[in-house]
Amino acid sequence: MHTIDMNLVEMTLDVMKYAIDRISNITPELGSPKKEEELLEMVGETITDEGIGGEKAFKLFRDVLVKATVPIDHPRHLAFVPAAPTRAAIMFDLVTSASSIHGAYWMEGAGGIFCENQAMKWLVSIAGLPEGSFGVFTSGGTVANLSAMVAAREEWRSRSTYNIGIKGLVLVSQGAHSSVEAMAKVMDADLIKIDSKGDFLTGEELQAGIAELQEKDRKRLFAVVATGGTTNAGIIDDLAGIAPVCEKEHVWLHVDCAYGGGALAARSVRHLFNGIEKADSITIDPHKWLFSPYDCGAVLYKNMELAKNAHSQKGAYLEIFKDEGAQGFNPADYQIQLTRRIRGMPLWFSLAMHGTEKYRSAIERGIELAKIAARKIEERPYLEMVRPESLSVVLFRRKGWTAEQYRDWTYRNHKEGIALVTPTIWKNETISRFCFINPDTTEADIDLILETLK
Ligand SMILES: *Cc1c(COP(=O)(O)O)cnc(C)c1O
C-alpha cells in the first residue's frame, strides 16, 4: 500500500482538484438528505473483496453522495449553528492529515502541539484568564464540557473522603446546552436547572438556588455551569454576578461558550462576558464561530494541575513519555481523549496567516448581520421580532403562523435549494430563528429568505 504508483498520483490530483474547486465555491449547491435505500440504489455496495477502485469510489462520492449532504458553509444556511471555515484552515486540515502527527504527547507531536498552543494562547487571552491558565483542543463542545466537569468533580472529590462515595451535583442555568445534561448523565452526576426571572441567570438567583439546596445536596454540589451565549437565543448569563458567588461558595465555575466563544474577540460585545476571567474552566468551539473545519473544540482551565489530576492516564506502555527529551505539554493529560488528531492546527495556520484582527472583524460581521436582519424583520408588516437579537442569533415570528406552517416552509426552502432555516421554540411558541456565522452572507440573502415568509 505504500508504493506510490501513477494511479495514486492521478487520484491525488483528482482529489486536490475537487478540494480546490469546493473551497473556491462560496455558494455550493444546498444538498438534502435521501433515504439510505435510495442512496444504496444509486451507488451499489462499495465495500467488496477486490475493491471498486479509487476512481469509481471517488466519482460516487463526488457525483452522488456529497449531494445528499448539506454544506454547512452555505451563506443561506442559518439553522442550528452553521459554520464558515476559512480556506486557509481547510487547506491546512488536509496538511494536518497528510502530516500524520499523533496529538497526545509532546514526544511525538511537539511541532504540531506547538502550533496548537500558539492558537490556544490567543484563546486564553481573549477569555482574559489569569497567568498560568491554558487549555487543549478537543473534538467539540460536548467533550470539552465533559472534560471540564470531570476535572471539577475530581477537585471536589479530592477535598474530602466523604465526597468519594457520593453522587455529585451540578447546577446549570435555564439555557444550558443539551450536552451539559447529557454529559452529567455520562458522569452519573445529578443536575438541577435554576429558574431565572429574566432571560439569563443572575448572581442573586444562583445564590438563592444554592441557599435552597438541602444540606446533603449542598455537600454534593461540585460545579455551576453558566452559558456564554445560549445556542437557541445567544443569551449570556450574568457572569460578573455568578463568578463571585461561586468563589464565595467554593464551587467550580464552568462557562460553556461553545457557540458564543468567538464573540470574546468582538470588541462591541466583549463587555457582556465580563466575569468570565474568573471562571475555572471555559468551553469554546473553534468549529463554530472561529472558522475552523470540523471538528475542533477547546477546553480552557484556570488551573492546569487540577485538570491533569483528573485526566492524566497511567499505563505501562505510556511511561516512556514521562522520560527526558519527551518533556513538554501533553494534551492527553487535560481532556478525556488519548490518541488525538492535532485538530487545532488548521486554526493555528489560519490565525497565523490572517492575523487576529481579521478574525475580530469577521465575527463582528456576524453580529452586524443579526442587527441588519432585525431591522429588515421590523420593516416587514408580516414579521416581528420575538426578542432583541443577541450575539448573532435572531428570534422572530411570522405573524399568524402555526408550527406546521414553519415546518412546511423550512422543508420547501430546503427542497428548492433556497435556504436552510429551521424553526425553534421560545417560551412554548414555535418561531423562526437565524444564526449568523458566515461573513459572506449578504443582505440580499436575508431579503431573499424573508420574502419566502410572505
Ligand atoms: C454546540 C454547543 C455545544 C456542543 O458542542 P459540540 O461541538 O456540538 O459537541 C455545547 N454547548 C453549547 C453552548 C453549544 O452551542
In a few lines, what is going on in this structure?
The protein is of the alpha/beta class and 454 residues long.
Comma- or semicolon-separated keywords:
43% helix; 454 residues; alpha/beta; four-stranded antiparallel sheet; Pyridoxal-dependent decarboxylase; 16 helices; PyrdxlP-dep_Trfase_major; Aspartate Aminotransferase, domain 2; 13% strand; seven-stranded mixed sheet; lyase; pyridoxal phosphate; binds pyridoxal-5'-phosphate
Tell me what the structure shows.
- There is one protein chain.
- By secondary structure, the chain is an alpha/beta fold.
- The protein has a domain at 100-348: 3-Layer(aba) Sandwich (Aspartate Aminotransferase, domain 2).
- 43% of the residues lie in helices and 13% in strands.
- It has 16 helices and eleven strands.
- The chain has helices spanning 6-24, 36-43, 54-63, 87-99, 106-127, 141-159, 178-187, 203-211, 215-220, 239-249, 286-289, 304-311, 345-354, 356-379, 403-415, 443-451; strands spanning 134-138, 169-173, 190-194, 221-227, 252-257, 281-284, 297-301, 383-385, 393-398, 423-426, 429-435.
- The strands form two sheets. It has a seven-stranded mixed beta sheet with strand order 1-7-6-5-4-2-3, sandwiched between helices. Strands 8-9-11-10 form a four-stranded antiparallel beta sheet.
- Residues 81, 140-142, 145, 177, 179, 227, 231, 256, 258-259, 285, 297 line the site of pyridoxal-5'-phosphate.
